[in-house]
Amino acid sequence: MTLAACDPARTPPAGAPTHSVPAASPAQPAEITLAFAGDVHFADRTAGLLGDPRTAFGSISSVLSAADLAMVNLETAVTTRGTPEPKAFHFRAPASSYDAVKAAGIDVVTIANNHALDYGRTGLTDTVDAARAAGMPAVGAGPDAAAAYTPWITEVRGTRIAFLGFSQIAELWSEWKATDSRPGIAMTRDLPRAVAAVRAARRQADVVVVYVHWGTEGEACPPAEARTFAGEMAKAGATLVVGTHAHRLLGDGWLGRTFVQYGLGNFLWWRDDAYSNDTGVLRVTLDGSSITKTELLPATISRRTGRPELADGDDAARIRQEYADLHACTGLAARPDA
User: What CA–CA distances, in Å, run from 25 to 18, 224, 301?
Assistant: First the structure.
């Protein structure tokens, strides 16, 4: 197969969304729920979870499955081939990774991150081909820039929702970026193309989701580069912007009518010493195209299995309070503009 087979990350023809939820009956609520979580790896302690992909995510699957649409960052090359790139950490996983993601109730993944090309463009080709074979939409990378910057668009009870993925990580970014003639990743540093992608998505969809791999590892506050890009996304028409990479939770808030979540942390995670085992699922409620509620469901990552598990009691209260405190350094408003 070749990268040209990356259909899940391309926009469906008008009137033919790739995923649809039946229209609400009079007895059904009209609200739509979206769920977002952070970085997912299948390596070291989590590699063995693929022995049974149906149960890889454990009990947290019930939260993801309950949402109309759920999204995570799949932070690995899905390949058995390729040559390691000149960088410190390399991750790859088998195609059953996509089976595990689907079984957990996840509907779309971003592969715009600093590990999708760990095994070069051969590895990226396999990653995209495996997504297509599994029927898993994967955004943020492709055989060329046109594919990498194209959203996955779907419809839920009459509301069209577009999903885009971008990376802001500096390492190897110019070598890994997708161009008109080269496979790669959708990058925030190619700002005109990123802005154009969001504007185009806005013309096709009622809701635009932008998932960004950004921030500074270990730092609880978003850097200036992330804050600037969030502002550009808001001006371009994004409904919500979510992100990961810092290996810990970051705060959230509003830029006008755009909701921004700067860091969802590790989620299904391969090691126990990456800054924090606190995590969660961001649940966003929509009424048509308007966000009516956002909440973080606190979770902790099991030191034994690497799985995220919903927190309760003191742990849940502590994570909620610490998460609320993170708002102070985001530069975001506590409420949307009226």
Answer: 22, 46, 38
Domain residues for the domain of 299 are: 3-329
The two most distant CA atoms of the chain are separated, in Å, by 57
* Residue 63, domain member (yes or no): yes
Stated as kind and residue range, the H or E segment containing 242 is strand 240-244
**How many structural domains compose the chain?**
1
Q: What is the pLDDT of residues 290-320, one digit of tens each?
A: 999 999 999 999 999 999 999 999 999 999 9
Alpha helices by DSSP H, listed for the chain, are: 61-66, 96-103, 120-134, 145-148, 173-176, 191-204, 224-236, 313-325
Burial of 27 (0-12, 13-18, 19+ CB in 10 A): exposed
CATH of the domain at 257: 3.60.21.10
Give the end-to-end CA distance of the chain in Å, rounded to a whole number: 50
- Within a domain: 338: no
